[in-house]
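[Q] Does anyone have a clean structure-token version of this?
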Amino acid sequence: MFLGLLTMGAHPTRQCSLLQLQPLRLATCILFLLLLLPPCSVSSSVITHLPGFHGRLPFYLETGYVTVDEETGTELFYYFVESERSPSTDPVILWLTGGPLCSGFTALVFEVGPINFVLAPYNGSLPQLVNNKYSWTKIASILFLDTPVGSGFSYTRDPKGYNVGDISSSLQVVTFLKKWFNDHPSYLSNHFYVGGSSYAGKVIPLIAQYISEGIEQRQQPLINLKGYMVGSPLTDPKYDRNSIIPYAHGVGIISDQLYEAAVANCKGDYFNPTNEICANVLNAIDNLMSELDNGDILLDKCAGRLIPKPINGVSSRALLEEYSRLSEPPARPTVNCFSYRFYLLNIWMNDKATRDALKIKKGTVGVWTRCNTEVFPYARDVPSTIQYHLNLTTRGYRALVFCGDHDLMVPFLGTQAWIRSLNFTIIDDWRAWHLDGQAAGFTVMYDNNLTFATLKGSGHAPISYKPKQGFAMGQRWLDRKPL
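[A] Here you go.
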């Protein structure tokens, strides 16, 4: 390309000829031409080996950056795993992580991706990786994305670029998808879905809505959107938050007396107390719930935070810098804790060999943390996404909404309630769905292609707790079969 530009000429009155220019003038001319070229919007690398994984990766892994804001130099980092079954016909899924500001790699290694960590006591060496036999990449190609900017390895050259929120980050994801599909046109004909859990459930309907509007306006490239999936999704505090206390009562965390006092004095609003009695009751309930792991009430309550909160005005950024200078790993949860896998991930991601293998741009991200929720600003500027769910499903897009039945953070009671508020007709009534001859959860299907399901015995980000059941659910739904 450069030879063609040089012989064609980069100046209206003068050609840069390779035959005529001296070496110094040639170098100057090439530099001048490079400055005239637009910045590269998509850069990618094929990854064949990962530290801690024995041998060559048995799947196609690609990592890269996509520029989503030229003015601030914002680049989103992605991991793409091609379907291990039939890449030309299997669906493509953009799978997002919650937080907000948690890395997409969390989903790759703990939810629907092809590798898991070996949960062994840390001995000072690099944590080991193994195949995930319940990876959704056996049935679909999956894009894992570090979004919003500031999560994972996504970064911006201008600090102002970190000032994003629900709306702006969702639009950046749409920009990412347009550029990625332009760079990977062979996947444009595949069915496309957006999926994810927790706070990702707040932005997934926005992203799907923006894509659908682009399709109606015939914007190129035409993404073949078919639907979306949300697990334990934050949707509307009226339902999400106010379901916590009824759920806590139903599973025996709080007494009849406390629950009745909350109902009588809080008037259905359990997060904005308007009188002293309500406030006192809620405080007593909070104390009881603090005894549990809110992500899964059956698990031991363990240390989950690897980076300390700000103390006496010390900023989180300063604490992160301090953490990067530690010669020993921080205090860790015990190996039996669910959060232990996050501890191993932090060690693995901050190893130089890992960054080199993933082709991370040097100098862009200091200490990698799974969730940067205390480091960068984030505007939660969409209070409710119920209308987006209504718009999408009534336009013909398929929706799978699933929950863990032991999740105290976003209880399934609230999710059921906002789904019922859509006033859709039930076409397949509440029933168990099965795996290996046992109930794997319960499900109900509404008109407008909306399916709700629970994963029995699962917590928040349900698939990470029940991967086998989660894979069966996903495969059946993607194949358009009843759960």
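[Q] Thanks! Anything notable?
[A] Residues 43-237+382-478 form a domain with the Rossmann fold fold (CATH 3.40.50.1820).
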